[in-house]
Amino acid sequence: MSKSTSIDKPIHIILGGTFDPVHFGHLRMTQEMLNRFPTAKVSLMPAAYPPHRPQPGATPQQRIEMLQLVLGKYPQLSVDTRELERDEPSYSVVTLRNIRQEVGDACLVFLMGTDAFEKLNEWYEWKALMKLTNILVVGRPSSQLPTTGEVADFYHEHSIESLDELPQHRFGKVGFCQMPQLDISSTYIREQINQGFSPRFLLPDGILDYMNQHGLYGLNPKS
Ligand code: ATP
Ligand code: MG
């Protein structure tokens, strides 16, 4: 693991996702970020589901509440609700433009797993992201950094030598962060429940309690 970096400007790290539900894969990524960048502010930013994709099991409000439940006691971690406050799914580039205006010339880092990064070229105006933010890619089981194609070329064009360099760049760089990989996904959690199995120990107990209380993902509501 690379050592942490001392910096004079705050680093804003954003993990976008659907968090349906939030699990230890997401949460461990945030801690790995704080271990490397101790002064960072890390936001988890739930997205609205695009209309053509299967709709989430939890409502936007429930997804926010689950995130707040688990992040509430950690001051450096927060929930950014802006994408769910709009009625329609918003493009990441538009959201990041908005965030850039708020953070001024701070270092901005958009965090994503390799499964998301390998499809980056399907995102609206994806190359424009580089004028707004850095991207940090985290290894995820069953997917890898692309070695050929547009996204691979993009990675090579913008990649940094070492993660320690990242805080010096406000935007425009892509890094890869190796960390112990957790083969956990929200899909797997929903599938386990669907098959009548418990998802316990894949996510915080408090989240599972919330899911039980609200009868999410096919669980029977409990009081
Ligand atoms: P789903 O199965 O519903 O797609 P998910 O587990 O992939 O859920 P998302 O909310 O889609 O979770 O993920 C948000 C971001 O977090 C994505 O960039 C994704 O790559 C990353 N991520 C999620 N889980 C992990 C994990 N276990 N390891 C590394 N990255 C992860
Ligand atoms: Mg996903």
From TrEMBL:
GO terms for molecular function: nucleotidyltransferase activity. InterPro entries: Cyt_trans-like (IPR004821), NadD/NMNAT (IPR005248), Rossmann-like_a/b/a_fold (IPR014729). Pathway: Cofactor biosynthesis; NAD(+) biosynthesis; deamido-NAD(+) from nicotinate D-ribonucleotide: step 1/1. The keyword RNA-binding does not apply. Residues 14-191 form the Cytidyltransferase-like domain. Gene3D superfamilies: HUPs. It catalyses: nicotinate beta-D-ribonucleotide + ATP + H(+) = deamido-NAD(+) + diphosphate. Belongs to the NadD family. Catalyzes the reversible adenylation of nicotinate mononucleotide (NaMN) to nicotinic acid adenine dinucleotide (NaAD). This is Probable nicotinate-nucleotide adenylyltransferase. It comes from Kangiella marina. The gene is nadD.
